[in-house]
Amino acid sequence: MLHTVDYVVILVYLVGVVVFGIKSAGKQTTTKDYFLGSKELPWWAICFSIVATETSTLTVIGIPAVAYGGNMTFFQLTFGYLLGRVLVAAFFLPRYMKGELQTAYSYLGERFGPNMQRLSSVTFLATRLLADGVRLFATAIPIRIIATSAGFDVGYPVIILGIGALTALYTYVGGFKAVVWMDVVQMSLYVLGALTTVGLLLFALPDGALSGLVAAGKTHVFYSDFTLQAIATQPYVLVTAVLGGGIFSMASHGTDQLIVQRLLSCGSLKDARKAIIGSAFFVMGQFAIFLFVGSLLWSFYGGADIAGLGLSRLDEVFPKYIVEQLPVGVAGLVLAGILAAAMSTLSSSLNALASSSMTDVLGSKIAHLSQEKALQLSKWLTLGWAVVFIGFATLFTNMQNPVVELGLSIASFTYGALLGAFLLGLAVKRVQEKDAMVAFSCSIVAMVAIIFGVWTTSDGNWMFLFNPDAAIKTTMGLSPIAWPWYTALGTVITLIVGSLLSVRHR
Hints:
By secondary structure, the protein is mainly alpha-helical. The protein has one domain: Up-down Bundle (Sodium/glucose cotransporter), CATH 1.20.1730. 73% of the residues lie in helices and 2% in strands. It is built from 20 helices and 3 strands. The chain has a 3-stranded antiparallel beta sheet. β1 and β2 form a beta hairpin. α1 packs parallel to α15.
């Protein structure tokens, strides 16, 4: 049970977030100030902000759940993440830093035209709503456990509303500067909470516990099955994790406005490169910490399944330990860290959505507005997206899959089309706007069919069975294509269709 001190720690954190966010806003007179922080922020703060933005509650409670239910092969993805960021730094950033771009999709507008810019932006908006809706819901999981332990029967929608409202407040007032500096604080907080948990678990476990983890295969990192079926269907096979994860990272850090906005706010190409590549190493460290937490929890609870723990899903294992086992004050600190991870991602999404809406969707329609009115519209768009976010987050309350895998899978529906469009613009000079738009649309339609419908049997034969209920397919002995390949497949489809259509032009 949580102590009064824990509730005080959480309350002080929530109040401090809003106050600090508003205080760190600085002077705002233009949309460039509001969305890019006037390009005055240091590269290391941008680096930490990138890490905090991609580290949501999915990471804090989802990755320990992956390790608890399996092992540490999830860590292989980080090698792909590093590869993808290096490629973005080498090929994408020079194009982005040449002009005065405010969004990733401004480049597509310059290369192809305004219709392609709007199409890609709308796709980004839809993807962020779904993917970060999962992240916001994931935050409600530990909070609901806290409320239940304290005797309050509070549903997920109420918790989602409270978190969303607080985050929207400081994002509305503070803009991008507030988001970045709060990211720095929040990253420090949740890493400190995770390291404290590791120390307490190691102290509580008996001698020989770590040897038991090794013997049980819980510390296994590399999965090197090179059979075609394993590579195609197992997400944490080394080849799949590195290549699939690398392409996924190219899309997430090279075409997603959520991250590109941070890179565009850097003062120079050199600073942008340091920020994005440095973030990969910090993410590696975070993944290692949270996977280790999951393995230690498995040892602490004697390998009990979720039914034996009295839980409904693996994502509740870490929150259960926090509420029931951590000392007074420390539990509040760790829970505040979980809230920090969630609020950093949500605030970043709100600012990025408002930025893309202003620049890519509305664009020329608001060109006549004065800077003062454009700035006010930007703030109102931030609040509007917060309301929509809260509504979307409530759609995931009945999902049973680990939330970290669900969030990554959602992004994969559209990341391939986005990455493919950027690569078409860079590599195929004859591609025109209509070619790119058709290829982009074909990729998304194809990925919906592939993700829901393409499966393989135990003997390696492929079949198409359009039925979103994975449980039915599993009982039939079928396996889906591994989610790290989704972005790669979408990218290839976009490139092939766009290249073929471009043959029509000189």
